[in-house]
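Below is a complete specimen:
___
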Amino acid sequence: MIAFTVRERENKVWIGDNKTAFSRFEILLHYLNMKTDKIEKMRHHMLEMHRKSRYTEEYADNYNENVHKAQSLIYKVIEFFAKLPPYNRLEIPHEMRSEGELLLLLNQYKYLFEYDADDDEYIEPDEESDNLFVANEMGYTDILTGETFLDMFIIDDCTFEDGEFDEDIAKLNRKIDELFGKYISLLDDVLRVKKLYAPFLDAYNSGDKQKALQSLFAAKGQVDPAMYLNRADKMNIIYKLDESGELCRTAEYTSLGAFLYMELMEGLEDGTVPRKCANCGRYFLQAGGYDTEYCDNIAPRETTKTCKDVGAKNTFDQKVKTNPVWQLHQRAYKTHYARMKKKNMTQQEFLDWSEKAADLRDQCLAGRITVDEFKAFVTEDLRYKKK
């Protein structure tokens, strides 16, 4: 959408001149956990309105209506991303949020259009089945120059007949392509995280890491642009001292996709990669050298227990349910614990027994003793053991 700078120091990330820092990988995690139904919908309509906004005979009759629908859609995309990182820490240029980039562009070529300065009629766009298109006032006056800008974009058929403006029309269409391409690429940047990065991380964290990496770098995007791994976006990196005199890295990115790509690659380099929680299904940051399947967020339908708490219990319950050695251990543990509570054995006797039982359980699981040997120990009633 717009270029931005990123300052990094330790595990903090600052966007532009904003003083509030993100945690490292926080932005990547946001898009990994984001639902993309609306993104898919906006992309579909953006492709449609791109086609209808080009200067061609095919859409000449409804060009005025199409252009304003397209500009309204662009506004929607801008406002949507202005609430998301990193753009929520940046100032969006006035011409993007208010004046309208498409309208500003077309006004540079207003000699290619029919325009009746005395015609104040407002054409209400057709109603759509969704709320992506909102009717805008058509036309405005530059308060500084007093120049009246076009409010009716109707393609003049004569420009297609005499060829006088062919070069200008081609140039205008190229600029229209660039404008829409900027926003379509932005939507693709988000979809790439869900379509390419998320499946890769699932495979990387649960299987052969080298095979997952090879598959990631072999990904092709001829059909779906969101499946390209690394788009040809520019990025510059410099090192400098921040306000406190600390060394920090500053990178200049031309796209959201370039930033998210670097987040992923840097995480793979230092072994700090996001992982999907086996309980809630949301991605969380897994620090290098620390392997866990559960996040520290409050678990669904819980008020205090985290996914890690719930997941550990579920894992343990499943282990006890399916393993006869664990079943023997847990039954004996509960029996001896009840005896201790009833004062039929001392606390020290219980602690000594539980330590020995855990050791023999692990030996049995490792195959160093038989199940019968383990069973003989855990079922022995210590109250009748000869002193």
